[in-house]
Amino acid sequence: MVVVGAGAVDHDSFVKMADKAFKALPKTTVTTAEIAAASPAAFTGSDVRFRDDDLEKCHLAIAVQGASWTDPDAVTLMVMQTMLGSWDSKSPAGVNVASPLGQRVAANELAESFSAFNTNYLDTGLFGVTAVAEGGEQLEDLVWCIMYELTGLCYSVEEEDVTRAKNSLKSMMTLHTDGSSAIAEEIGRHTLCYGRRIPKAELFARIDAVSADAVKAAAYKFIHDKELAIVAMGQTQFVPDYNWIRRRTFWNRF
After folding, report:
1. Residue 179: CATH number of its domain
2. The pTM is what?
């Protein structure tokens, strides 16, 4: 547990309040790291579907095993998430988005929205894409586009796309810490994950070090011919089966 204060905080008063609020909590000598080491996460291919035709949409998530907070490729996956991007049909941007996946989805009206995600844990992670779409036959095209762009990171990555993603990622990180609440959240998260708060300059230097080759190497490590976790809810009857999607984690190139 980390108790954080940011802004106009008197340290001594803050410590006294924290002590009063949490002194009754039980103490243990077993740390989270020790628990994770004793029972490490085991990622297995899985496919869970909840068909409910009363829902107007199909809610879909496709993920591969990602990186832990301290994995050397954690920052690279952050850049890859930004490259895949997100899109919403209500956005005024329309088809004019930087993400190739966003352009494909928008131009062909394949989904109401989608968003790439990169979730990190102590000893593992999840990396993938969520989407909300009509429950029609276009779902197969939507899944094809998601897998094409996801797997494409293993084979074809342009340096200019990586640079754009890095600049966008740094901008988002800066904008997300524009108040004391956001700063306190960042300090707490960094302390739990890294044992210290990482300065922006250091984090940005790690981001700037990511190259197109680094993206392809990380994609090959985490995506190429790897098992998937698939979840669909709502009108799921047109979502392709697991083997169809799994086959698209690699390309046969001759």
Report:
1. 3.30.830.10
2. 0.89
